[in-house]
Every structure is written in C-alpha cells, then in structure tokens.
Amino acid sequence: MAYKTLPPPVYPGSELHAFYNVSMAVGQGKPNNPDDVMLVQLCLQQVYSWPSIFPLVPDVGAIKADGKCGPITVNAIWFFQTQLQESGVLVYPDGVIDRASDWRAGTTSGYGYSILWMNWSLKQVIGEERFLHLDVDRITPGLLSLKLGISDF
Fold first, then answer.
1. Which pLDDT score is estimated for 153?
2. For residues 145 and 9, what is the distance between their CA atoms, to the nearest angstrom?
3. How far apart are CA 96 and CA 40, in angstroms?
4. 43 phi and psi angles, rounded to 5 deg
5. 9-42, pLDDT tens digit by residue?
6. Fewest C-beta in 10 Å: which of 24, 73, 90, 108?
7. pLDDT tens per residue, range 135-152
C-alpha cells in the first residue's frame, strides 16, 4: 500500500518534509500493487506535464494513474531514471521503482532510490503545499487518496 511518512535524514532535496513511498516494487515483473502503481504513475504524470522543467517522455503515450503497470508506465519509469542518471544522479535505470527500505537514502549497492527522486521531482512541479497534502489534492485518484490519508505520518 502506498503511504506517506517522514523522509530519511539524508535524501535528495533536503527540504522534503513528507515522503510518499511504495510498499512493494513497481515495474515489469514486480508485485505492482494498484495503489503503489498509482503513486508512481501520478508522480510521472505530473513531472512530465511540465516540459519546461522535465523533457517529455518520447513515444510512450499519456501516463494515466490507473493502477495498471503496463508498457507506458514501465517505459516512463525507465526514462525518468535514465534522465536522472544522465544529470549525474546515482540511480540504476532498470525500469523498477523500489520501496525506500532504510534511512540511508540508498540501496546496498550504493545507488539512490528512484522513489526519493520522484518525491523531490513531484514537489518541484506542484509546489510544497500541494505536495504536503497530496491525499486531498485534486490530481490524486480516489483510491490513492484513501491510502495516503490513512498513512502513518
């Protein structure tokens, strides 16, 4: 279940005051819980709706927050990770968004969690106030609103 929590003490964009995480990995061959997928899709949808900040994903089609992890979502995840890596961020572009499972803000292999960078990117495009209250924002699908609204924070 997607959830809202406090961010780790060392994380991208140290000004994050909340953090949205997935309970299980999202991507090809992963569990793809619908609300986890919706959170990732919502982040991607919003980030790529601001082409002046984030270049559009080529040839993937519209990203819909429907909770189904298909080729559009997998390609958009991969593109997001590739863009981060090309800008100097140490992430592994594998088309999978893993749960940030510890407070080191990085994986055991030394890569950063893509979900942390999705949070930071989402905050950049929608602003601090909307980001902090994503559970009641108009862009958030109903099922995801419910899950984020009952999260431990």
1. 47
2. 26
3. 10
4. -60, -50
5. 655 555 667 889 999 999 999 999 999 999 999 9
6. 108
7. 999 999 999 999 998 765
Structure tokens at 102: 């510890």
Q: And the tokens for 138?
A: 């108009």
Tell me the backbone φ, ψ of residue 17, rounded to 5 degrees: -110, 0
Q: What is the 3-state secondary structure (H, E, C) of the chain?
A: CCEEECCCCCCCCCCCCCEEECCCCEECCCCCCHHHHHHHHHHHHHHCCCCCCCCCCCCCCCCCCCCCCCHHHHHHHHHHHHHHHHCCCCCCCCCEECCCCCCCCECCCCCECHHHHHHHHHHHHHCHHHHHCHHHCCCCCHHHHHHHHCCCC
Whole-angstrom Cα distance, residue 59 to residue 92? 22
Segment 48-72, tens digit of pLDDT: 888 777 776 666 668 899 999 999 9
Is the pLDDT at 4 greater than 60? The verdict is yes
Beta bridge partners of 5: 19
